[in-house]
Specification:
The complex is a heterodimer of chains A (460) and B (178). Chain A is globular, with a radius of gyration of 24 Å. In chain A, helix 3 (41-67) crosses helix 15 (414-437), helix 5 (116-137) packs antiparallel against helix 15 (414-437) and helix 6 packs antiparallel against helix 8 (217-250). Chain A contains 16 helices and no strands. With 460 residues, chain A is mainly α. Chain B has a four-stranded antiparallel beta sheet with strand order 2-3-1-4. In chain B, helix 3 (56-82) packs antiparallel against helix 4 (99-122). The longest helix of chain B has 27 residues, at 56-82. The two termini of chain B are 15 Å apart. The chains are: A mainly alpha (460), B alpha+beta (178).
Chain lengths: 460, 178
């Protein structure tokens, strides 16, 4: 019998949380980040940087509203330029958060429990940044509500056969569902903060948000069911969102856009860049807040593996894109591919190949995956690469389409850059507010990971 | 109906196993109006307390169906009846083009009904509840486990119930004021 037990112990998977934690210490460590009166210098520095860039964003938006979209470099035929590139990039980043919170929940991957909260927050803020661009790109953003079907005196209605209207519904549903899912997960933790906050105002605010959550067995029963159902709903939703985003391109007849493999290609790219962002956020956070026991090397390793796997799917898509261009026998498709590789955007194209295909191959080596600093750099490289991918797909296809006489190369203005960098500021600003005000790791889900949480059945 | 003088009696436990055992024991003794409180979900409690199955899946299903119908009918109404556009004689009822928005609204309505259904089934928001009168109950969201037998229970007897709970390895037993 003793041998059997020994074998069983050996077969146990290594715990995802460092040993030695109790319900109390887990709660205290995560809650103390929020409830402390002292704000760390790291937070101050990041928040200040984010805030400065946010001001730059507000400045460029103000200028945009007064002067119009002409402050950007967009000129026909390249009407989509940076704005749509940034939109697709940001929304893709958001997808990893939903993947971690919903798909990994359904697949019973309990290691996700200590990274899902901030990954969901990342989703929410990334979608907020993404939403800015189509809105600002409309030229008259204050009339955005024309895209929704409402009874109006103009007697017109949106065109439901257009992918651009599908996008409105897909992205707004995605933002709403992500917010709801995030809030449902937060509810028990808000109750923890309410019970632990010392300050009157803090206690009151967390109390209002926790809505009187008591952790009763009935609450938990419904909560578990709700989480699973929301995960089940969010899973097809997240796949549909980037599919619909890719429809914006594939349903058009522009060479380089009009292809059937865009949906899976876009979804894989989204998760690729999203996991890169998760690593870019997780590595400095766990270092700054000493959370290595909760966000362990195993989490980084797993995320890196997901990144490598989706990166290979993206690499396959690049190969297929070139192959289809040649095999279709369509001169315009072939020319579009050729222009990408040798035309005015060739440097961007080859850089994206380097960033997205060549560089991540380092992740095959365990030595690289186990060094957070290398992972951080690799993730940054992937984020740059994915941005270039969106840029090359959108801009190079538009700049050189069917009619040679209407070709025109797009060059971004400083306001293009300012708006883009500005949304990075908006993201950082919101994310660090979240870190300071809400628990960045799901406390109750980490409690369930502890060995003490198991019910010992005696005599059965 | 005359209100009992207190809300109930509450016992505090150190670990989830004691709580589940206590809930089973109380059930075996014939207590039925009680609730258990824990800092994380414990599946065994559902069975120990004989909780009925959650109605949430049904609510979500109905929400999803309403969402899907809304999405489809809205597009049908706009494109066929209210604002028909004849583009080279193509059919007005172009259902394949309706799929995306129908799908998105199905998800949206289902998710909204999941969250509002959750709140409704839990009776939230509820700013006041008698259990919060026990000072140590703040630990229910940290590392302690509580079982509360309500005074409304037909078998409830202030003294006997307290003694029973004390016999269950409880750390502390306290009365819960209204």
């Amino acid at each position: 019998m003793a041998d059997e037990r020994q074998i069983e112990e050996e077969l146990q998977p290594t715990p995802v949380i460092a040993p030695g934690y109790t319900f109390g210490t887990v709660t205290d460590q995560i809650a103390s980040v929020v409830l402390t009166r002292r704000t760390p210098v790291f937070w101050m520095a990041c928040f200040a940087a984010g805030f400065a860039l946010l001001l730059l964003f507000l400045w460029s938006v103000a200028l945009l509203l007064t002067k119009g979209v002409g402050i950007w470099g967009i000129k026909i035929p390249v009407g989509w330029g940076f704005a749509i590139t940034n939109f697709v990039w940001w929304i893709g980043i958001g997808h990893a958060g939903t993947l971690i919170s919903a798909i990994l929940l359904l697949l019973n991957q309990s290691w996700r429990n200590s990274i899902n909260r901030f990954a969901e927050a990342m989703t929410l803020f990334a979608v907020a940044c993404a939403g800015m661009f189509p809105l600002l790109h409309m030229g008259r953003p204050w009339l955005f509500y024309w895209m929704f079907p409402y009874p109006n005196a103009m007697g017109v209605q949106p065109q439901f056969r257009s992918p651009l209207i599908w996008d409105v519904f897909a992205v707004s549903t995605y933002a709403t569902v992500s917010l709801l899912f995030w809030f449902v997960g937060l509810l028990p933790d808000l109750a923890t903060l309410r019970d632990r906050a010392k300050h009157r105002i803090a206690r009151f605010m967390y109390g209002i948000l926790a809505m009187g959550w008591r952790g009763s067995a009935r609450h938990w029963q419904h909560h578990e069911v709700a989480s699973l159902l929301l995960a089940g709903l969010a899973t097809p939703l997240v796949l549909s969102v980037h599919t619909v985003v890719s429809f914006d391109f594939t349903i058009a007849i522009v060479p380089g856009w009009h292809s059937t493999f865009f949906p899976p290609y876009f979804v894989a790219g989204a998760i690729y860049s999203g996991f890169a962002m998760v690593l870019v956020l997780a590595i400095p956070l766990r270092w700054a807040y000493g959370l290595q026991g909760l966000i362990t090397d195993k989490h980084l390793d797993n995320s890196a593996k997901v990144m490598l796997a989706t990166g290979l799917i993206v690499a396959y898509a690049y190969v297929m894109e070139i192959f289809t261009g040649w095999y279709s026998g369509n001169v315009y498709e072939a020319a579009a591919m050729w222009h990408r590789m040798t035309g005015p955007y060739a440097p961007a194209y080859w850089m994206l190949i380097t960033c997205n295909i060549a560089a991540p191959q380092m992740l095959w080596f365990k030595k690289v995956r186990s060094k957070p600093i290398f992972l951080f750099i690799a993730s940054m490289v992937v984020l740059v690469g994915m941005w270039l991918e969106r840029f090359v797909i959108i801009v190079s296809s538009l700049a050189q389409d069917y009619l040679v006489s209407s070709w025109r190369v797009f060059t971004p203005t400083r306001w293009d850059w300012a708006t883009y960098v500005g949304t990075i500021g908006l993201f950082t600003f919101l994310f660090f507010l979240f870190i300071r005000l809400l628990p960045m790791i799901s406390i109750f889900e980490v409690r369930t990971l502890l060995p003490q949480a198991k019910i010992e059945e005696d005599g059965k | 109906m005359n209100k009992p003088p207190i809300y109930g009696v509450m016992a505090e436990f150190d670990n989830p196993t004691s709580l589940v055992n206590a809930a089973r024991e109380a059930r075996a003794r014939g207590y039925s109006r009680m609730d258990a409180y824990s800092p994380f979900p414990i599946e065994a409690l559902t069975e120990a307390l004989h909780l009925p199955k959650s109605k949430l899946p049904l609510i979500v299903l109905i929400g999803g169906i309403i969402g899907g119908l809304t999405g489809y009918l809205m597009q049908y109404y706009v494109t066929v009846i209210y604002f028909p556009i004849n583009i080279a004689g193509r059919p007005l009822h172009s259902w394949p083009m309706y799929i995306v928005i129908t799908f998105e609204l199905t998800i949206l309505f289902a998710a909204l009904s999941a969250v509002f259904g959750l709140l409704a089934l839990c009776g939230l928001p509820m700013p006041y509840h008698p259990t919060f009168n026990v000072p140590r109950f703040a630990l229910a969201s940290r590392n302690r486990f509580f079982l509360c037998i309500q005074a409304r229970d037909p078998k409830f007897d202030r003294k006997a119930t307290e003694e029973f709970l004390e016999s269950l390895n409880a750390r502390e037993v306290s009365e819960v004021a209204h």
